[in-house]
Amino acid sequence: MRQSILFTLFTLLSIVTAHNVLLPSNGKRCFFEELKKNDELALSFQYGNRDSRATDQLTGDFWITSPSGRILKQEVGVSHGDVQIKASDSGKYGYCFSNEYSSIDTKDVSFNIHGVVYIDVNDPESNSLDAAVRRLSVLASEVKNEQGYIVVRERTHRNTAESTNDRVKYWSIFQLIVVAANAVFQIYYLKRFFEVKSVV
């Protein structure tokens, strides 16, 4: 019994994985998953920037290929996404993140993979504790994925807010200098205007 519980926990840990990779400039990164027929592969991803001073939301391309090499799903120029496929055949499915049309070398991809192993509804054990633990694991991974997405978005928005604050600060300093120069000029001009010149 104890070995069965440990095996179930180990299996669940291998189903849900989270990754963070740096995309090379003008390059791509591909990963592969072995799926059996009717297994589901769900993947959520977010493009970010490792440069702490960056304020732009970066984008990239994403696609999933079947074992035969056919593209099943493709996203072009997106900043984030949630993709889910159902395996029609058993084999090695690939998914790629592309930075091929950009020279940015600090482009960061955070992605989470969670799969659903196909369970036959006619199986009498499908309503077992293992199935309940799997459902709970999927829900927990969805919450974790959402938290990861929120962290990346918060970092991007914070960088944008700090950049805006810096611009406002420097604009205010520039305005203060212009107002002070204008005041000095007006005092000088009025002083010359009211000077009394005597002719000898």
UniProtKB/TrEMBL annotation:
Database matches in SMART domains: EMP24_GP25L
Signal peptide: 1-18
Residues annotated as domain GOLD: 28-115
Alphabetically ordered keywords of this record: Membrane, Signal, Transmembrane, Transmembrane helix
Pfam families (alphabetical): EMP24_GP25L
Superkingdom to which the source organism belongs: Eukaryota
GO cellular component: cytoplasm; endomembrane system; membrane
Membrane topology label: Single-pass membrane protein; Single-pass type I membrane protein
GO biological-process terms attached to the record: endoplasmic reticulum to Golgi vesicle-mediated transport
Keyword Transferase set for record: no
Principal location: membrane
PROSITE patterns: GOLD
Location in the cell: Endomembrane system; Membrane
Transmembrane segments: 170-190
Family, similarity comment: Belongs to the EMP24/GP25L family.
PANTHER family found in the cross-reference section: TRANSMEMBRANE EMP24 DOMAIN-CONTAINING PROTEIN
Protein name: Endosomal protein P24B
Native species: Wickerhamomyces ciferrii (strain ATCC 14091 / BCRC 22168 / CBS 111 / JCM 3599 / NBRC 0793 / NRRL Y-1031 F-60-10) (Yeast)
Lineage: Eukaryota, Fungi, Dikarya, Ascomycota, Saccharomycotina
